[in-house]
Write a structure and sequence with these properties.
With 204 residues, the chain is mostly helical. The chain is 40% helix and 8% strand.
Length: 204
């Protein structure tokens, strides 16, 4: 669907939080350095108005950095932080060019142009993190569409989105989702159904 490349999201998190080591960000589950923003706008339901204040360096003229203090969004979990990032980028007109863009350099360029960061070296930094860590491997995943099925059967769940559900096909799905030696046990099927309902079941 309307997505931002996972490689770009991961690299931005590495860049913004110094690979998850920045103490204030870690405590706030805020790996993506998202500011509260003037209007405190909610683009989804993942951010619950929590914030933390920290010093940040902004470069408004392309040359000089100014040290300012600003409020950044804090989250109940890292998952909420990532969800909010996707909600903002996918719903905010400024970032429209990045949504569905399959070239990571063009995607991060559009995100920077939309106002996500002011650093003139931001694009280079993020693209170098992607290249240096082979993050494009995460872009190759295709997911089954999220299903609103509320029952407990993986077969019915797959059928509800028009996917095949035969056992040999379920075994293939299980393998690419890290479930080894699929035999169709309750435990294995529960795992598959959980991922399907979350929209994160990888297609084989």
């Amino acid at each position: 669907g309307r997505k931002i490349l996972p490689s770009v999201c991961i690299a931005q998190a590495c860049c913004e939080s110094a690979y998850g080591t920045t103490k204030k960000m870690k405590n706030a589950n805020a790996m993506l350095g998202i500011k509260v923003g003037k209007g405190k706008v909610h683009f989804g339901t993942a951010w619950h108005d929590k914030a933390y204040n920290t010093a940040t360096h902004e470069c408004y003229d392309g040359k000089t950095y100014q040290k300012i203090n600003d409020f950044f969004r804090a989250y109940d979990s890292v998952e909420d932080c990532i969800t909010d990032y996707y909600d903002i980028l996918c719903n905010c007109k400024r970032y429209r060019a990045a949504v569905g863009e399959n070239n990571y350099i063009r995607a991060i360029t559009a995100i920077r142009a939309g106002g996500y960061a002011t650093s003139p070296t931001y694009i280079t930094t993020v693209t170098n993190i992607i290249k240096g860590n082979d993050l494009t491997k995460y872009d190759r995943f295709v997911f089954f569409s999220k299903c609103s099925y509320s029952g407990n059967s993986i077969v019915d769940g797959l059928n509800s989105i028009g996917a095949m559900s035969a056992k040999d096909y379920r075994a293939k799905i299980a393998a690419v989702n890290g479930i080894v030696g699929y035999t169709g046990t309750d435990e294995q099927n529960k795992k598959l159904l959980f991922l399907l309902k979350a929209g994160s079941l990888v297609k084989p």
